[in-house]
Write a structure and sequence with these properties.
Rossmann fold; globular; 19 strands
Length: 747
């Protein structure tokens, strides 16, 4: 049987004469699963179990002192507490057996003890509660809320998790958020939270997988599973009791976790029965990757700044990471004397600790709630010393920010001074786009779905377009994922702005004149924001102000460059002035410029992928087709492969059933031309063409070659075509090949 040689645990269950014994059952269940040699594999001699009368302050502190002596930096340490917690005179505490005001275990004291333990892999679990007015005057009675056969533990936690969080490899989870209750079904062996943990430690979340990367249950998968499973158990209880009386989402039991993890470390062995699923090859690769991530997380210079009584908080989306998403913006702001009184921090998590879908463009709504809970608790506790807090958010980070602000109490909300959001899908995603582009994968983000509509309704009722903070929402005309309407529609004109660049690059400024940087700087300092790079004609096109574009550009059509001519053609198309479009394309000095046609085709292709408009598809196909025809006639191979591979992509994405013949024809044409060229983009074309032709191993080889030395913008473009094309081709959105694409092109 397997034994974890260097894993230690302290398990505490305190009932305090309540005679509910659910606390003791929780602790005993944790001990039993950890010591089971067919499951977790902890040595019994490495675990201290303290139940009720044994869980006095002296024994708890003594056990911690013992581990301080035993544990080295290569050990792992798990601490589990099931009982009561509370908040007294500004301090959070855990309640030992027969507690009085003299022997509480305060968060700051627990943190001091944990900081002496040398392990860099700590997993701290609280299934605890606070029952209201502990030690209010002379009343030291502890109460539980008991309703019929259901037990609830009224929880506030009030930041005890954050009081002990050192943000250096410690993962902390608690059974519920502030002002929520922790529940157990009467008659069950464990509370919902602990039962979910037990299932995770038994690898219930891994049993459906075809292969496992190694033989361990790890922290990130465990946290994600518990966040899903605990509310499910609560809802099942509510449905059984009153199917029509379900409470709102924000009132259900939602666990808390610190999300600024620096590592995804092993907690325990997977069950023996799953060992046959472990892939040795993948095991070696994934562990190497994890070691690299831990190293980067610890070694990357931090731009965080502590001084000042104002806080500028950067909140990234689910495709970025705390230290990197906003490029040089924090360092640029810190060099500006206007921000001498501002502390600056990221709120995020290491790349390995992404939400459950990995480094994808979107995350689940559960992740929005999870991170919003963490941010809310941080503002009310960890960041309570700051007089003002300004939030700069990107992508789904903006939804997190909005959700958080709605959850805050009035005092905390009044400390929010600014909210600046970039590329946030505040109005959700159109159902037809979810259906076709994302294969209904992110249905909860639908603009017509309950979550987005509920968020918008609550936001409107709370603020009615009058905000206690300064608000700016920025959209990009080049954003390939989030529509202008979704970014801007929920907010009045005065709050809307435009910036340059695609989705992932809009908050990575080139210099201090960049749109995104200027918007942040001017919003925080009160200066007027002037777009430096965003083309006004481009904005007018997106807004449908075609007359403005035509009025400015048509008189000078013969002197226009490629960009100007492209904008003029788009505007004329928008007003159905097709004859003038054909006249320009047939008679202009750039009429045979296939690069220009490719730009126009690409613009319509991006619009098609956002809206799935047949008109956009038709126009994209037309321009790529015309450009390919001219390129073949002039024997320009670099243009042939570019236009042919885009036509192959359009063929399969527009009609996965009948478009395969055209797809293969264009893929072969692109492959033949690319093999005659000598430029970096040819490898991406060779990879994509082989993917369409069913040669996945060859495709992988060339995607690896294509991504070498490429920037994120280029790799993102590769991923967009590869992912959408492959999903349309095989009708699978999450398999080994799509995982490869994410790791290689978005990792």
């Amino acid at each position: 049987m397997r034994k974890l040689e260097n894993a230690y645990a302290l398990i505490i269950g305190v009932d305090n004469k309540q005679e509910q014994d659910i606390f003791l059952k929780d602790a005993q269940a944790m001990y039993d699963v950890l010591t089971d040699e067919t499951l977790c594999g902890y040595k019994k001699e490495n675990i201290t179990l303290l139940l009720d009368k044994e869980a006095i302050t002296e024994n708890i502190i003594g056990a911690l002192d013992n581990y301080i002596q035993k544990i080295d930096e290569n050990s792992s340490f798990l601490i589990f507490y099931s009982g009561h917690g509370g908040y007294h005179e500004g301090k959070s505490f855990l309640l030992p057996y027969l507690a009085s005001s003299e022997n509480l275990i305060f968060g700051k004291d627990l943190r001091a003890k944990l900081s002496e333990i040398k392990s860099k892999r700590m997993f701290v679990l609280f299934d605890c509660c606070h029952s209201g007015g502990f030690f209010d005057g002379k009343d030291e009675t502890i109460t539980l809320n008991i309703s019929e056969n259901n037990i609830s533990r009224s929880s506030t936690l009030e930041g005890i998790a954050q009081e002990i969080d050192d943000e250096q490899g410690m993962v902390i989870m608690a059974s519920s958020q502030v002002h929520e209750r922790s529940w157990a079904q009467g008659g069950d062996d464990c509370s919902f939270f602990t039962a979910s943990l037990m299932e995770a430690f038994k690898a219930e979340h891994l049993k459906h997988k075809h292969f496992l990367v190694d033989e361990y249950v790890r922290t990130v998968d465990t946290a994600n599973y518990v966040f899903e499973r605990t509310p499910e158990k609560y809802l099942a209880m509510k449905r059984e009791k009153d199917p029509k009386g379900l409470e709102m989402r924000e009132k259900i039991q939602m666990p808390y976790a610190n999300l600024q993890m620096s590592a995804d470390f092993a907690i325990c062995f997977i069950p023996e029965e799953l060992k046959h699923k472990v892939s040795v090859k993948k095991h070696l690769k994934i562990n190497r990757d994890r070691e690299d991530i831990i190293s980067k997380s610890n070694d990357t210079p931090s731009w965080e700044r502590e001084e000042g009584n104002n806080l500028l908080l950067f909140l990234h989306g689910f495709s970025g990471e705390a230290k990197d998403t906003f490029g040089n913006i924090p360092n640029m702001l810190q060099s500006d004397s206007n921000f001498d009184g501002w502390a600056m921090k990221p709120l995020g998590y290491a790349p390995v600790a992404q939400p459950k879908l990995g480094k994808d463009i979107w995350g689940a709504i559960l992740d929005v709630d999870k991170i919003a809970g963490f941010l809310k608790t941080s503002i009310q506790n960890k960041f309570r010393k700051y007089d003002r807090i300004a939030i700069v958010a990107h992508s789904l980070g903006g939804l997190v920010a909005q959700k958080t602000i709605l959850l805050l109490d009035d005092d905390s909300r009044n400390r929010i001074s600014h909210l600046i959001m970039f590329g946030t899908p505040s109005n959700g995603i159109a159902p037809e786009v979810l259906d076709k582009q994302w294969n209904k994968k992110y249905s909860e983000l639908s603009s017509e779905g309950e979550y987005i509509q509920s968020l918008r309704k609550e936001w409107k009722e709370t603020f009615n377009n009058t905000y206690p903070f300064k608000l700016k929402v920025a959209a990009s005309t080049e954003d390939e994922y989030v529509s202008l309407e979704s970014c801007h529609k929920p907010f009045a004109q005065e709050h809307r702005e435009f910036v340059d660049a695609k989705h992932l690059m809009m908050v990575k400024p080139k210099d201090d004149k960049d749109d995104a940087y200027s918007l942040i700087l001017n919003t925080l300092t009160g200066s007027k924001f002037f777009n430096q790079y965003t083309n006004k004609e481009e904005i007018n096109l997106v807004l449908g102000k075609y007359d403005n574009v035509i009025q400015k550009l048509l008189p000078n059509k013969d002197d226009l460059d490629k960009r100007g001519l492209t904008q003029l053609i788009f505007a004329l198309e928008g007003l159905e002035r097709k004859e003038e479009v054909y006249d320009i394309l047939n008679n202009h000095r750039l009429k045979d410029n296939t690069d220009l046609m490719g730009i126009i085709g690409g613009r319509h292709k991006r619009d098609y992928l956002k809206t799935f408009s047949y008109k956009s598809f038709e126009l994209s196909h037309k321009y790529y087709g015309k450009a390919l025809e001219i390129s073949v006639e002039n024997e320009v191979d670099s243009q042939i492969y570019y236009h042919a591979i885009n036509l192959a992509f359009l063929s399969i994405v527009s009609d996965p059933e009948t478009g395969r013949g055209e797809m293969k024809k264009y893929a072969n044409q692109a492959l033949e031309a690319a093999n005659k060229c000598d430029d970096s983009w040819k490898y991406a074309t060779i990879a994509e063409a082989n993917m369409y032709l069913g040669n996945l191993d060859t495709a992988k080889k060339f995607y690896i070659k294509a991504s070498e030395g490429m920037g994120i913008r280029e790799k993102l473009s590769m991923h967009t075509n590869a992912y959408a094309g492959y999903v349309a081709l095989v009708n699978k959105e999450n398999d080994e090949f799509t995982q490869f694409l994410r790791e290689q092109l978005l990792g």
